[in-house]
Specification:
The structure is a single chain. By secondary structure, the chain is mainly α. The protein has a domain of 66 residues. Helix content is 37%, strand content 0%. α1 packs antiparallel against α2 and α1 runs antiparallel to α3. The longest helix is centred in the first third of the chain and has 30 residues. The radius of gyration is 54 Å and the shape is rod-shaped.
Amino acid sequence: MNRKTGLIITIVMAVLTLCCSLSCCTGGFSMFAGGDYGDVNIEPYYGAGPCCLSVLVWIIPLLLWFFLVRGKSDEEEIPTYQPPSPPPPAPEEPEEPEEPEEPESPAWPESPDWPEESSEPADYKTVKLDDEGEDF
């Protein structure tokens, strides 16, 4: 609560307290002064109680000012909810350098025993196999 809000609450309570205690105080003063209320005769010392009570009630605005306004500055704000801040981003890990890829080796390594390829078609021999997979 800032100073302005506390001061407004104090003034409102002071006005309400004065309005309510005003009738109590005037009645106490009239009894203390020896006023007559029709057929009822009230002793003057009974008027001291309402007067003291109404004066004591006036302390409420002073207490409100003491606790709500005194020592506060105008810059103070009503505390509001602040959402938690997001966590800081994780440090980036250095990327590992990629190893250069080796050229792929052929699936069948070349053998020096193999005959060189020629542009002429090769002679193929047709072989018949029996049921067990052997030559005739």
